[in-house]
Structure formats: structure tokens, C-alpha cells
Amino acid sequence: MDEKSLFEEFWNKESKTTSKVLSRIPEGSDYRPDPKSRTAREIAWQIVGEEKMIIEAAETGSIEWAPSPPPPTMKELCEAYDRQSAEIVRRWQALPAARWDGTLEFAGRQRRVSPMAWSFLFDIVHHRGQITTYLRPMGSTVPQIYGPSADEP
């Protein structure tokens, strides 16, 4: 298996897990563990934006952070994530090998697409992990991620 195929496999699995985690964020919750922390909803919308940003950067060769305003409800945010996620999986699969092995502009420098894609995937997983630590204090449950959780043995 080549690196791009491996990445696509991981991206697909991780996006399904991310969808499960986002679906557990209670509607209307504004919980944050500290005043400096973002809410789970804010972190969820960052994930949506990051996923869109990295595939567009891989396709076009430049990164632009221009998130749209989040939908008004968690239900709509989750629906937006699921629609976008399915499309992004197809877009990674359609990305030519030359683009995967090519470069993109990030912070005024040229960087290789493949390491940037992996870096974004790891950052998304990190933010998803932040959300999981919020779920129980918000009155929700933690889904299985890489194995059982106390809520889903």
C-alpha cells in the first residue's frame, strides 16, 4: 500500500469516529472547562473548517483559513460535517498522486502536501480528543474510539 492510500484509509476511519464524537455534543451546551477554553461546539466547527481547508489546499496548492459561521444547532453542524466528510473522502481518493507528492503554500512557505495532510489529520484527532474530555461533564457519553469506553464497553 502506498502512503496516499494509507492516508485515505486513516482519514476515512478517523472521520467516521469524529462524526460519532460530534454527535454526542449536547444541543445548546456552552460548557468549557476553563474560561480560556473553547466550547465543544466551537472546537467541532474548527474541525469542520480544518478538514475543508486541508483538502482544498492539497487540490489548489495554497491554504486559506476562511471559516464560515457555524450552523445554529449541533444537529445542523453534525449534518454539515457528515455531508462534507463523505465528499472529502472522495476528494482525497481523486487527488492525483502528483498533487499528493507536490507542495502547497502555508504561512508564506512552500511545504509538501503529504506531511501537511498527516499533520492536519493528527490535529483534528487532537481536537476530537479535547471534545471527548468535555462530553461527560456536559452530561453526555463517550463513544468507542480506538476501543471500548466506560460508556460503551
Uncertain parts = none
Number of strands: 2
Mean pLDDT: 97
The number of distinct helices, counting runs of at least 4 residues, comes to 5
Helix content: 55-70%
The proportion of residues in beta strands is 5-15%
String of helices and strands: HHHHEEH
Rounded radius of gyration (Å): 16 Å
N-end to C-end Cα span: 32 Å
The largest pleated sheet is described as: 2 strands, antiparallel
Overall 3D shape = globular
Helix-strand makeup class: mainly alpha
Spatial strand arrangement across the major sheet: 1-2
Describe the structure.
About 60% of the residues lie in helices and about 5% in strands. It is mainly α and about 150 residues long. The N and C termini lie far apart (about 30 Å).
Brief rundown of the structure:
By secondary structure, the protein is mainly alpha-helical. Helix content is 58%, strand content 5%.
Overview features:
153 residues; mainly alpha; two-stranded antiparallel sheet
Topology:
Blueprint: H1 3-22, H2 40-60, H3 74-94, H4 97-100, E1 103-106, E2 109-112, H5 113-135
Antiparallel strand pairs: 1-2
